[in-house]
Design brief:
alpha+beta
Length: 138
């Protein structure tokens, strides 16, 4: 047996000794490879979908099609809602800074959300309050 390990195979220490097994090809959020053994005739372990065979019934397949998930994390509506919330939070932070209510409020750093327009004067604060009133009444 070769003592040099490749990225695809690793020695797994079991009760009865070492054995050479294929490693799961999934990667973690940190970018490292999963440390578990892959399932037989699969590229990934049972935690990363090795046991999954997908929806079998027509109803399950239809639900899967209608879910419209974006990379499996969040629906399209959830993504749009999160974007709108980010814009609203950033604008409210700007409004607090313009009104002078928060002496220590600094501008939020980072990438501006899509649709964000900075609030820098009282007219923009009044417009924001009006938009929030309309949205609340609807």
């Amino acid at each position: 047996m070769d003592t040099k390990l490749s990225t695809k195979k690793e020695r797994l220490i079991l009760v009865f000794g070492q054995t050479l097994v294929k490693r799961c090809q999934a990667s973690s959020r940190r970018g490292e490879q999963c440390r578990k053994a892959a399932m037989q005739n699969k590229a990934v372990c049972r935690n990363h979908g090795g046991r999954s065979t997908g929806a079998k019934s027509e109803a399950g397949k239809q639900r899967s099609r209608e879910a419209n998930l974006h990379h499996g994390q969040r629906s399209v509506q959830g993504t749009l809602r999160a974007r709108e919330d980010g814009v609203r939070i950033r604008q409210l932070t700007d409004a607090v800074r313009v009104l002078g209510l928060g002496a220590n409020v600094k501008r939020v750093r980072g990438k501006w959300p899509e649709g964000y327009k900075p609030i820098e004067d009282m007219e923009a604060v009044k417009d924001l309050v009006q938009k929030l009133r309309i949205r609340r009444e609807a």
